[in-house]
Amino acid sequence: MCPIWPLHLIILYILAICPMWVLCQAAPKLLATFLTETVEVHMNQNYYVNVNVTGSDLQIGDELSLRTDNEHIATAEWNSTSTFTSAEVEAGHFQGRFRVDGLFLGRTELVVEGKRGTDTYLVNGTLPITVTRPQRVIDTIFTTSVAVFISLIFINFGCAMHWPTVKGVLKRPIGPIIGLCGQFVFMPLISFGLGFLIFPNSPAMRLGMFFTGVAPGGGASNIWTFILGGNLNLSLAMTTISTLAAFGFMPAWLFSLGQVVFANASIVVPYTRIATFVVGLVVPLAIGLAMQKVTPKIAAFMVRILKGFSTTLLLFIIIFAIVTNLYIFELFTWEIVVAGVCIPWLGYLAGYVGARLLRQSHEDAVAVSMEVGVQNTGIAIFLLRYALPQPEADLTTVVPVAVAIMTPVPNTIIYIIQKIMGCFRNRNDHKKILEDDLKPVSEAPEPGFVATIDVK
């Protein structure tokens, strides 16, 4: 054992901290004062900031540098000299100006560092930086064009709707009840549970999942139901009922489980947006139904082009949405992809299986599956932008955007399989017809054949 134990531990500690103490004494004590408390800048734009640095023990040739905690979000660069002159050393004061470049959504902090020779020291004082997304003209064009095309497609649906069938659905509402249970019981609960499983340390992302789960069914459910050969009349009835029911179910979920997900969220239920969606659904349908009575030929033409128009509209929405929101793919992680897959795909599965277990036809089960699995992600994004500040609002919208991107994947695969199988069936039917045409005709009459001659 050491003869001076335990004093040797104290001696070693002093020897270790002495060089650090000397360095700290040698470094100048500086304070950076920014002429703005915080910086908020849009992506791909910049902002200029003035700064004052005061302190003592300065030397001619000392330099100041700028650094952000996350250079993926923002960077900074001096717009003036950052080297101390003799006048600034004597005054103990430095005035400068620098440019902040916003690169991507998020928050970071700017730090000023001093450099003397090869030594670097920290300057007290930091500047919070927030980078947000600007409102662009292309976003307005996209939203407006989608609204116009959706209105046109629902006029087509009105032309194709068979009102007696819809009344029959409402008199025996087994399908709508299954759809309501799937839409407003299964989907909120599954999105709530998956949120905690996939994002255990991110309340904002969990809120993004939950808001997506409590949203009513989207208009695309009717388009996919028609394309995949489901019961369109049932689908339209369920979408209308689901949207109206959202007035009661959404507040109930948001102010119960929603507060558990993120208690500090200032949740505002978008009644106006839901009401707008109801009007945008009912009015075009009514126009289409009126066209069946007033202009039956035009209505028949609208029905003939419905499938091609629906497919074109879906492709337009998917491609345009991806092009206008390319930046959001930088936020995609495996968690985001899993969240985007689970919400709609589990909804499809639950809707179809539940309908078949309750002895609904395949066509009705397809309609229920689409109604449960397709969410109105627009309402979810609207909710997030009310409940969260920027840039968190835009950052968390990656969840409903991921859901919107993953929603058509299984439907597209099923549609392609249907087309391939249809081609094979047509080919086999054509081959059978050719074989029947090429069979030799027997000259002898078949047994039991009676020839008749018309004698005039």
What would you note in describing this structure?
This protein is an alpha+beta fold and 456 residues long. Helix content is 60%, strand content 14%. The chain is built from 18 helices and eight strands. The protein has helices at residues 7-26, 86-91, 137-160, 163-171, 174-198, 203-214, 220-227, 232-254, 257-261, 271-294, 296-304, 306-324, 334-357, 362-373, 377-387, 392-396, 398-406, 408-437, and strands at residues 30-34, 39-42, 46-55, 63-68, 74-78, 93-102, 106-116, 119-132. The chain has a four-stranded antiparallel β-sheet with strand order 1-3-6-5. A hairpin with a 2-residue loop joins strand 7 and strand 8 (119-132). The longest helix is centred in the last third of the chain and has 30 residues, at 408-437. It is found in: Membrane. The chain crosses the membrane at residues 141-163, 175-199, 205-227, 234-254, 274-294, 306-328, 334-353, 398-417.
List the helices and strands and how they pair.
Elements: H1 7-26, E1 30-34, E2 39-42, E3 46-55, E4 63-68, E5 74-78, H2 86-91, E6 93-102, E7 106-116, E8 119-132, H3 137-160, H4 163-171, H5 174-198, H6 203-214, H7 220-227, H8 232-254, H9 257-261, H10 271-294, H11 296-304, H12 306-324, H13 334-357, H14 362-373, H15 377-387, H16 392-396, H17 398-406, H18 408-437
